[in-house]
Amino acid sequence: MPTTDICHHHLSETDSTNSQLLAAMLASFGQVNANNQTLPNSAMNWQPQPHYTRPYRLTADHQRAGRGQHGRVWQSPLGNLYYSLYIPSEKYADDAVRKTGWALARPLDGRLSLCVGYQLAQLLAGKGIDTTRHHPAASSLGVKWVNDIGWYIGADFCKLAGILLEPVTAHGNMLGVVMGVGINVAHAPDLPPQAAVDYRAVALADVLAAAQLPPLADLAQAVDGALMQAVAQFNGLYDAQTVPIFCQQFATVDLLLGKRVQVLPTQGDTPPIVGVGQGIDAAGCLQVRLSDCAHHATVTRIWNGRVRVLDAETLTI
């Protein structure tokens, strides 16, 4: 089944493509199991109609309430890609989907986001971004653990794209996952001071000539392919051989590798952690070496948190 066969619908505007697709999939599950439940009015006219047993892509020209990680707002001006793709769990996928491998064959964990980031970085790097940026201090395009894509200029992160994965659960069962992707194509959003973010937004238009910018419909289809590769990659993380291979692959796009970083916990009163990025471990955790002294180094595993690079130097790990 080629990616062109993925059911999809496009909206001129919506609150959030992730929220809309989540609601539609939950409603389709209810429609099967309770005759008095129907799809949300906003999804009734989608053609084809979404169903929780099959992949489905939703895109929009504009989001009124786009969402990012940690409850942040995703600014959504016209001209950028706002994209969500639903993938069913293998348990709930129909037979045709199960045969294609376009279903989650293993329990969801944070490594799926890393697989998505890796594949999107490969896709966007293929647009020639690294050869069109002329800043001498710019890094290659890559992934900032765990769900941001862009590059560093010195210690300043330039964010081109973001990822938001959300499970679709009903009655304690995971029907599937919605994978949200936002890519700044024509415009880098203006981030107000109150946004309190530690990056600056950039767009493809900042580094590519107008003639090189991909049409949004073509880019969405390319993202389909990248995300399907990510699902296949994630499904393959099942033994002691494939996991180290993925860790090595991710290291090629890991923007924090060898960088002195500060990790701010997302919850509680835990103090910040300062150390040197050591890549990811088998579970997808960020590894941080807490001492620069090789003989007394302690490596800690980070499950979640906000990370910022403290200086431009890349240290030997």
UniProtKB/TrEMBL annotation:
Q: Any idea what this protein is called?
A: BPL/LPL catalytic domain-containing protein
Q: Note the InterPro entries from the entry.
A: aa-tRNA-synth_II/BPL/LPL (IPR045864), BPL_LPL_catalytic (IPR004143)
**Ranges of residues in domain BPL/LPL catalytic:** 59-184
Molecular function (GO) terms listed?
Answer: biotin--[biotin carboxyl-carrier protein] ligase activity
A single Gene Ontology CC annotation of this entry is: cytoplasm
Q: Which domain of life is it from?
A: Bacteria
SUPFAM superfamilies in alphabetical order:
Class II aaRS and biotin synthetases (SSF55681)
Q: Name one Pfam family in it.
A: BPL_LplA_LipB
